[in-house]
Amino acid sequence: MRIFITGATGFIGGRLAQRLAEDGHKLHALIRSPHKTAHLQHANIRLFKGELSDVKSIDAAIAGCQAAFHLAAYAKTWSRDPGLFHRINVEGTVNVFEAAQRAGVQRVVFTSTGGTLNPSDDGQPSDEDTPRALPYFNDYERTKAVAEEKAREYTRNGLPVVMVNPTRVYGPGLVAESAAMTKIIRLYNRGRWRIIPGDGSRYGNYVFIDDVVQAHILALQRGTPGQRYIAGGENATYDDFFEKLKKVSGKNYAMLHLGYPLLRAATYIQYGALRLVGKPPLITPEWIKKYLHHWAVSSHKAQQELGYTITPLEAGIAKTLEWIEQSDSVQK
Asked: With contact defined as beta carbons under 8 Å apart, do 72 and 92 qualify?
């Protein structure tokens, strides 16, 4: 199959592009930064220079494709130009949908985020149908939610769009901004991460990168247009996560529980200082507010409808650590 893909220079998109190419599909990858394409050097991957704001470049790249994966997004914690979130995540997505319609693409898989789901503060894991009870915490989530509505709208108008909502993704691959959990695992392995947010009791959902790739491929093959599918993994508290990391790594570092008031104060200080010099903060006060909540989810729908399977957290951490240690040894 000939497949159009955006976001192939990112964490998830890069891994997906490699898998699709290895499976024999012919890929047309829309690339904004040619210097980030070393991992895309494959006979089945053809690179097209362009961006989501350039309709002509999208049309050129998508021509002749039967399917499309749209993963490119503006996923940063902050921007000096907040309008970028809407221009890339909403307007750029509409540009892809419009181009897909013009090209006669048979199906589009759109990558959203677990951040558009509802918190699980009531003790029950959220799923695709749990109504959102709280405002969104940041521009990324807000614009991705709008893009999901666009996906439903285009599906109603004849373009089959299936949505995938990954949670906290970790694993081997490009250590991009969206690979925060992989960065934390690497830092812990080097003895440079000793913090557990709050009292460690907040739940999150941690998904191995290859499971997310699997979810995208299954969504293309079996997903219902207009529906979203949570590409999730194992629900675990922060304490659970770091206990598993200690066990698998064999490195029993002393950890510090950093209370949320102190976290917020530190965040405001670095946020204000970095904004003055125009640099993106590591985390914003809005993101701290988000992690005051529980984010357990259920991937039952993807398992039942798509045949999606989940890698246990310990097994995924083990694979990630093996890759990190191999990568670190090569870099020495």
From this structure: yes
